[in-house]
């Protein structure tokens, strides 16, 4: 699994755009976060590339570090009434998170495609590699 089976950055970039990581033509999702079973252009079995909780974790990490942490440096966040600041912060924050999540999931699936990690590899654990 240490070898990269396909080019990493192009695969992730195609996934980031919501496209098939192999050809970049077919749609990756048929609903908000529902991955198509097969690519309509190249017939790649898209459902075989696991995402699990990785995209959600990475999205929270990105939004937390790039939006929430810098936001806390503005005194208006602390000084004004929560009646106004909470909706003004939480609604855009939810919108940013929901907009970012499918893109991160697409890039994640692109990474899984590039690294040739499939759902059949689920039995592998990092602890097993140490032995
Ligand atoms: Zn394709």
Attribute tags:
mainly alpha; 131 residues; single chain; binds zinc ion
Secondary structure: elements and pairs:
Blueprint: H1 8-16, H2 54-71, H3 75-79, H4 82-114, H5 126-130
Residues 20, 22-23, 25-26, 39, 41-42, 44 line the site of zinc ion.
Strand content: under 5%
Total domains: 1
Strand runs, count = 0
| Rg from Cα | 18 Å
Give the bound compounds.
Answer: zinc ion
Order of helices and strands: HHHHH
Give the fraction of residues assigned to helices: 40-55%
Average the pLDDT over all residues and give the rounded result.
90
Please, could you describe this protein's structure?
The chain is mainly alpha-helical. It has one domain (8-121). Helix content is 53%, strand content 0%. It has five helices and no strands. The protein has helices at residues 8-16, 54-71, 75-79, 82-114, 126-130. Helix 1 packs across helix 4 and helix 2 packs antiparallel against helix 4. It starts with 7 loop residues before the first helix and ends with a helix. The protein binds zinc ion (ZN). Zinc ion binds next to loops.
């Amino acid at each position: 699994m240490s070898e990269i089976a396909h080019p990493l950055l192009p695969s992730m970039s195609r996934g980031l755009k919501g496209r098939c990581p192999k050809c970049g033509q077919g749609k990756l999702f048929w609903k908000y976060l529902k991955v198509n079973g097969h690519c309509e252009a190249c017939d790649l079995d898209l459902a075989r590339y696991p995402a699990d909780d990785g995209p959600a974790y990475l999205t929270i990490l990105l939004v937390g570090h790039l939006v929430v942490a810098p936001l806390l440096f503005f005194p208006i966040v602390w000084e004004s009434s929560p009646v106004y600041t909470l909706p003004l912060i939480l609604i855009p924050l939810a919108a940013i998170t929901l907009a970012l999540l499918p893109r991160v999931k697409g890039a994640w699936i692109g990474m899984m495609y590039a690294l040739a990690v499939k759902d059949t590899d689920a039995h592998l654990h990092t602890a097993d590699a140490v032995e």
